[in-house]
Amino acid sequence: MAVRGCGARTAAISGEAPWTRVVLHVDMDAFFASVEVLDDPKLSGRAVIVGGSGARGVVASCTYEARAYGVRSAMPSLQAKRLCPEAIFVDGRYSRYAEVSGRLHEIFASVTPLVEPIGLDEAFLDVTGAQNLLGRPELMAGEIRRQVIESLRLDCSVGIGRTKLIAKLASRAAKPRASIRGKEPGAGVVTVGPDEEAAFLRPLPVEALWGVGPATAARLHALGLTTVGDLADVPSSALVHQLGSSPGRRLSELAHGIDRDPVVPGRQAKSIGHEETFPSDVTDRSTLERHAVRMAESVAIQLRASSVRARTVTVKVKSPDLAVVTRSHTLGGGIDTAHSLASVAVALLESVDIGAGVRLLGVAAGGLRDRRAGEQLQFIGVLPTSRGADGDPGGGGGGGGAGSAGGDTAGPGPVDVGAVWERVGSLQEDRREISAAVDSIRERFGAEAVGTAAMVDEGGIVVPRRRGAAWGPADEAS
Amino acid sequence: MKFRAERDSLVEVLTTAGRAVGGRGVSNAVLSGLLLHCEGNHLVVTGTDLDLTIRVEHEVIGIEDGSCVVPARLTADIARSLEPGAVTVEGGDEEIEIAAARSRFSLRAYPVVEYPSVTIAEGASLVLPGAMVAEGLRQVVRAASTDDNRPLLTGVLLTEHEGAIRLVATDSYRLALRDLATEGGLVGGHDILVPARALGELQRLTSGGGVGAGAGQEAGTTGEDKGQSAMDVTVSAGDNEITFTRGRVKISTRLLDGTYPDYRQLIPDHYPNRLHLGKESFVSALRRVRLLVRDNTTPVRLSMRAGGVDLSVVSQEVGDASETVDGDFTGEDLVIAFNPSYLIDGVEAVVGDEVVIETAEPAKPATVRASEEDNFRYLLMPVRVS
């Protein structure tokens, strides 16, 4: 018991109930926008919006000065411009944010190895054990903030709670506020002890809980349930009846502050993807395929950088009326080369009707596995669709995969993506060596040094950067 | 329609035919039913999902001729739960009544006219000993793909090879082939591609797991010395379908359309390395080390050397296991890794006490076969480990 003195003291401060677990949630304040201000002091004190400035752009991040005008993340840029005409739009620089994020994670690692990163700018830290070494959670939170401010010259907010949910909601309560004078400092660190949980949770809107999106919220509102307290007061069977057994039970538990979700260190991304909204709708299939090949290249680079291979490829197509169609296919083995990804993506696109035009295209790789895991090999040359057995996947870049995918004889109607895999699988080997060579060229001479034909633009080779245009393109003219 | 039957045989007939009935996702409600047709003392029960049809004949005490379509699963469940003894089934287009002892069920029936007419190829074209069919299917069917994206690979190829009928299946990771020595060839002499699902049903039927060849069925799977007995399988091929008849059960399936890949290209003509092992000890060892495999990418490594093979499984989450099996090895020492389940499938399929593993290189296909018989081969692609 003596060893756990620090934990016991924390419990004593917060009340009688013991801290079975202590979770910190660290969240950077206006991360992307703050990095931009840091790098360009002229932006200091201004309403800065990071995101796509074009007609279809969205706000990725904005300073508190912009928030004072009602600008929020994920808001269409046009709306943000209306709310705050003087806002300065800045293109996102994902690699720079990733660099800062890397240093942020070094700070986390100095506290505990139990860090679960969420995106670039937030993380959960399980510090239950670290208390023995580093003292009370408030001390650790304060130390993390001090280091972030001193070494990164950025701000963050920290929430402390017994569960991930409480910690996350606490960090939100610790955030600065936006006012007409700009940023008003928040508490910086907020602790919600076990005995304070009910009082803290009850007044919050139901939307504060995980899993309550607009649809669920609307159903709950229709039942007169608007706050977490309302949810906690109805029997869990009533929520089960309304929402189904698993979501209903989970929501009831969350409303009572019960959240068993552990902090999973280094939780691997479930998927890696790239999507872009086009400046104007793409109506031509070969153009769309060229974009798919280009995006596949970007995804493949990230797969290899993360030492994973993907088994599932998904394409997402948004039409001008905002209807979204996704198609995915799971392969017999893992892939990490642009060519393989592109072949499958292009074959998947064949089954999508693009008659109305395409506003947004996304290519994502899922079913990620460590590439050091074994890889089941396949017979080479067993092609269920015998026509074009010699294939033309060597066409590589441009529409190469596109033409060949249409040549299937089996499978009436939908494209036989499996057949594509047959070809892909047999080519993996050569492509892997090419990809490794491309990777090392890029490492030495930069990303623009080498690329497939699909990546060549008027200005040379354009490598789609991670999240490069995810927030919407600039207008074509600009 | 009205008849009386003994409970156990009725259950058997209903469940056997019911195996062709699709699951919950049937497009047409009537397909979730079984067609019962009674004429004299002869009851015929048909189940189908339009691709696969199973028809069972059975002798009953006929009371009134006629037909009805009953919900397959429910009727079988009811029959199974009844007291032992006689069951009376009476029904028409709207209703069916099942009565036994003091139980009485009245169920809604499907209209008989809505039941699809199914084509069942008739006429004996080839008769095969049941035991041989059972063995061949056991060796081959499991290598077929279950991935509907590769429709051709979900079939088993029946082709003529040097006077025998050769069964071939592959899911692109492994390939199994078996030659069945027979006197007659395939109808028309051309290759046919039979869905593995239908052959799985035939396998179940011929391996005699108690599923109905009707009266006269023995317990074992041996059909020896019976001439053309109830144990034999009669194959009747039509243009688009094939029917296998064994005793009172007919399994009919639509054939797959398309040209099967040229599997012969995959079979290496020469292997530099050869390992002879006792089948039982090898399978047991593989089963033991497989206990540590928690996902299908953890392979078993085989380190082959003079005197035998060392097996090892290393699982990052769980731990590791190793095992040595003595045997005779000729060739160059080699380490090669396989999906343990695929390897076990192949070794188990071998008939006899000894198994031979032939290899070339760590990334080239290996072959599993018996040391004596040459009628079965199992090709297996390794797992690449770095």
Structural description of this entry:
The complex is a heterodimer of chains A (478) and B (386). With 478 residues, chain A is an alpha+beta fold. Helices cover 39% and strands 19% of the residues of chain A. Chain A has 17 helices and 18 strands. In chain A, helix 5 (94-109) packs antiparallel against helix 7 (137-152). The model of chain A is unreliable at 1-16 and 383-415 (pLDDT under 50). Chain B has 386 residues and is an alpha+beta fold. Chain B has helices spanning 7-18, 72-81, 130-140, 196-206, 279-290, 340-349, and strands at residues 2-6, 33-39, 42-48, 52-59, 61-64, 66-71, 86-91, 95-100, 103-108, 126-128, 155-161, 164-170, 174-181, 192-195, 233-237, 241-246, 249-254, 273-278, 300-305, 308-315, 319-330, 334-338, 354-359, 366-370, 376-380, 383-384. In chain B, helix 1 (7-18) packs antiparallel against helix 2. The radius of gyration of chain B is 24 Å and the shape is elongated. Residues 209-227 of chain B have low confidence and may be disordered. At the A-B interface, strand 16 and helix 17 of A face strand 26 of B.
Quote the beta fraction of chain B. Answer: 35-45%
The overall number of domains of chain A is: 3
CATH architecture of the largest domain in chain B, please?
Roll
For the largest sheet of chain B, list the strands in their spatial order. Answer: 14-11-12-13-25-24-23-18-21-20-19-22
Which segments of chain A are poorly predicted (pLDDT under 50) over 5 or more consecutive residues?
Answer: 1-16, 383-415
Largest sheet of chain A: 5 strands, mixed
Nearest-angstrom radius of gyration of chain A? Answer: 25 Å
Largest interface: A-B, 27 and 31 residues
Q: What global shape of chain B is seen? A: elongated
Enter the CATH topology name of the largest domain in chain B: DNA Polymerase III, Chain A, domain 2
Helicity range of chain B: 10-25%
Q: How many β strands of chain B by DSSP? A: 26
CATH class of the largest domain in chain A: Alpha Beta
For the sheet with most strands of chain B, the description reads:
12 strands, antiparallel
Which strand order spans the largest sheet of chain A, edge to edge or round the barrel?
5-6-1-7-10
Reported CATH architecture of the largest domain in chain A: 2-Layer Sandwich
CATH class of the largest domain in chain B: Alpha Beta
- Strand content bin of chain A: 15-25%
